[in-house]
C-alpha cells in the first residue's frame, strides 16, 4: 500500500473523534494520523509507535518534549513532520537535520523515507543519548548523530540537503550550512505562520542561496498553520 500525505488544507476544526480521546496504541496512532491526512504502511506505523514509546518513557527525566497528550503529540510532532512529504517530490540523498532535539523532523522523516542518508545534529548530551537510543532500538540504518553545534566550521562533510524545524531565523542558519551544502543543494525550513515577516526581510542571495519554493498550509483538521520554505544553494 502506498503511503499518502494529504496536501489539501482544511478550515474544519472538529473536536477529535467527536470529543472522544484516541487510545494510545498502534490502531489509535493510525486513526489519528489518518484524521490529519497521513496514511502510513503498517511497518512504518509500528516503527513510529516504537519511537513514541521511547519518547514517552524518556521524556520524564530527559526533557525531550513539552507536549503531553497523545493527540497533540501525533498532530504537532508526527503528522507535522510527515506531511512535508506532500510538498517534496524528491528528497536529497544525503541530508542533515539541524537542531533535531528529540528527533523532529529527522526521525519521522527517516521512517517515511528510509533511503535518505541522514545525520541528526544536536548538541545537548541528553538528547544525543536519546537519539542514539532510538537509532539502536529501532534498528535504523543510514542515520547517525552529530553531537555538536552546527557552525560554519563544525560540519566537515558535504551534504545535499539540510532540514530544520523550530530552530532559529533562516538568516542565522544559512551561514552555518553555507560551506557544507553542495551547489544545487537544498535547505528546507519548517516554519509557523510568522515566517511571512521573516521572509519579508530575508536576502538569501547574501549567503549564496535563492528562494525556490514557499508552501503555506494547515495540518488537516487542526488549527496549526505551517510553512515549508525551500532554498537552493547557488554559489559554487
Ligand atoms: C527548539 S529545539 C527544536 C527541536 C526540534 N527541531 C523540534 O522541532 O522539536 C532546538 C534544538 O536545537 C539545538 N541547537 C541549538 N543550537 C544548535 C546548533 N548550533 N546546532 C545544532 N543544534 C542546535 C538545541 O539543543 C535544541 O534541541
UniProtKB/TrEMBL annotation:
GO molecular function, one term: methyltransferase activity
GO biological process: methylation
InterPro entries per record: rRNA_ssu_MeTfrase_G, SAM-dependent_MTases_sf
Principal location class: cytoplasm
EC numbers, comma separated: 2.1.1.-
Subcellular location as annotated: Cytoplasm
Residues the entry annotates as binding S-adenosyl-L-methionine: 99, 104, 165
Pfam families recorded: GidB (PF02527)
PANTHER family xref list: S-ADENOSYL-L-METHIONINE-DEPENDENT METHYLTRANSFERASES SUPERFAMILY PROTEIN (PTHR31760)
Similarity remark: Belongs to the methyltransferase superfamily. RNA methyltransferase RsmG family.
The protein's role, per its UniProt record: Specifically methylates the N7 position of a guanine in 16S rRNA.
Protein name per its UniProtKB record: Ribosomal RNA small subunit methyltransferase G
